[in-house]
Amino acid sequence: MDAFTTHTGTAAPLRRSAVDTDQIIPAEYLKRITRTGFEDGLFVAWRRNEPDFVLNRPEYAQASVLVAGPDFGTGSSREHACWALLDGGFRVVISSRFADIFRNNSTKSGLLTVALPQADVEALWAAIEADPALPVTVDLQANEVRYGDTTVPFSIDEYTRWRLLEGLDDVGLTERNIPAIEAFEGARPAWLPKALPVP
Amino acid sequence: MPTTLAEKVYDAHVVRSAAGEPDLLYIDLHLVHEVTSPQAFDGLRAAGRTVRRPDLTMATEDHNVPTLDILSPIADPVSRAQVEALRKNAAEFGIRLAPMGDRDQGIVHVIGPQLGLTQPGMTIVCGDSHTSTHGAFGALAVGIVTSEVEHVLATQTLPQYRPKQMSVTVDGELPPGVSAKDVILAVIAEIGTNGAQGHVIEYRGRAIEALSMEARMTICNMSIEAGAKAGLIAPDQTTFDFLQGRPHAPQGADWDAAVEYWSTLRTDEGAVFDREVRLDASTLTPYVTWGTNPGQGLPIDGIVPDPADFADEGERSDVEQALAYMGLAAGTPLREIKVDTVFLGSCTNGRIEDLRVAASLLRGKHIDADTRMLVVPGSVAVKAQAEAEGLDRVFLDAGAEWRGAGCSMCLGMNPDQLKPGERSASTSNRNFQGRQGKGGRTHLVSPSVAAATALTGRLTAPADLETVPATRPTTPTGV
Ligand code: SF4
Fold this sequence. Notes:
The complex is a heterodimer.
Chain A: E1 6-9, E2 11-14, H1 21-24, H2 44-49, E3 65-68, H3 80-87, E4 92-95, H4 100-109, E5 112-115, H5 118-130, E6 136-139, E7 144-147, E8 150-153, H6 158-166, H7 170-175, H8 178-186
Parallel strand pairs in A: 2-3, 3-4, 4-5
Antiparallel strand pairs in A: 1-6, 6-7, 7-8
Chain B: H1 5-11, E1 14-16, E2 23-26, E3 29-32, H2 38-47, E4 57-60, H3 77-93, E5 96-98, H4 108-115, E6 123-126, E7 140-143, H5 146-155, E8 157-160, E9 164-171, H6 180-191, E10 199-204, H7 206-209, H8 213-221, E11 230-232, H9 237-243, H10 252-262, E12 275-280, E13 287-289, E14 297-299, H11 313-326, E15 341-344, H12 346-349, H13 352-362, E16 372-375, H14 380-388, H15 391-397, E17 401-402, E18 423-426, E19 441-444, H16 447-456
Parallel strand pairs in B: 3-4, 3-6, 4-5, 6-7, 9-10, 9-12, 10-11, 15-16, 15-18, 16-17, 18-19
Antiparallel strand pairs in B: 1-2, 2-8, 13-14
Helix pairs in contact in B: 2-5, 6-8, 13-16
Bound molecules: iron/sulfur cluster (SF4).
């Protein structure tokens, strides 16, 4: 996983609320068995059916920060939604509210989700609609979003922040605790089920 | 300090906790299917890791499984690749797999309980949102994503933050014809699709205690549709009776020890919930959804809502978009909505009791001439049981299709899909845009509403049937 320290890029305004993961990437793409190459499925229904969908507009084609309405990432827990956003060139999603599961997934794949009050989201929308080339900086070291003359602080839990800054992989972290896992296993009741075949 | 049931199960599985870090929880059972696992196994291979506890891991094929002609190779190349990847991975990493055609195959959330692998007080994970189903047994059952699947395969643990606690108390008694599905649709309509975010829901109260295990599974299944991390119900005699004698249930002295422990799994008097919701079961009627999320539901007596009635601008536009997608006009009585397809199945309502309820309404009748009905048992064992009871004949005689076990039209990863613009009444759990096929429109319903709807071709409550002439005369043997 790539470390995330600070990122500067242009931003795309996605003025929709309750964007569910089926819209981010439809179920048909879940059939793949690879871990990358999901950019073709990202918001595919909107990209195909709505010619002036924001990501179809050339001025937002290079955006790497997505600024969405509230309740982003609801619905099915597909991690592919994060992979598709990353594959589609996004490193950050900003919204006033994220679905828990989506948010949890995003940190595992190195996609940063930043929750800002809706009023700040509206201000950012207005700014990037007025000037689509406006650089937006998301600084995880300073916990700030900066654009133009505006600086908006955000909060994120320390552990997630540390892991993103260091680019640390979960399994490796847990493997430091093998002795504790072994001790726990030694104390489990013997009657707990085993998934081995029963005649 | 008094604790809740969910806290008890959680606390009993903490391997390690440190300030500012998630707790490391031990996982008692890891269920695996073909959709969310290939990249996880790839990750293990890439890092040279093995599966720590293959004996606590069980795999099956469900999402991509065709429900017709299950013994020929899967026609769709991508579906076939996923299923083949799972077979290869299960063999390579030494994991038990119930493949298509196996007596234990079925939807992952149906087979766990059926085999007795799902037991009270356990921690259970699966790379699937509806893992909450297993909470019906008083287990803490959480849906995880592919990178977490890899983590559990490698370490048999999962980093977790302590969830918030919520109680949904359903008092009173359910009226006849009103089922667990209606309860949960009513709960979600009441609290919204994000109403339980960050919480584990414990369902309690007289109406919940009176439910069968199948019905409890229906309720816990849809906890995720209210945004919850998990849903659970305290184990009781109904739970123990369901488990006793199942292949993986403890036996003899182990059974006694297990029941003694399971009996301690209840919320203490005075335990504090972060949020409490109460519902009176006796006021409930069959619920159906009209929109494109499971919270957009109403009693079947209702009418399609008018966007103008919503003061909040965001909500108004969500309702407008939902109605446009669903092709519905505000003010239309829900009972006048015509459907093309009825789908009876899924991990929400694909168990034997669900099939029995639907069959009892269809027996000796014929479904509407313009409606097709797909009946898809949740597992091979459910199918066999239904056939032993003659339910397959009831469905076939009524003009429905009797299929093989799997997820099927719940999400249309296999060939069972709606065509653009087609409308279904579905016993599954999600009515998102395109969920059952591109452009397909879904109304979520209970099994008895599904059967009644199949008979009339319009959304119909079972009680309406008494006033609607059947397409064919009923035989006196009706149940
Ligand atoms: S039946 Fe539907 S909800 Fe259940 S596991 Fe299968 S696809 Fe998911």
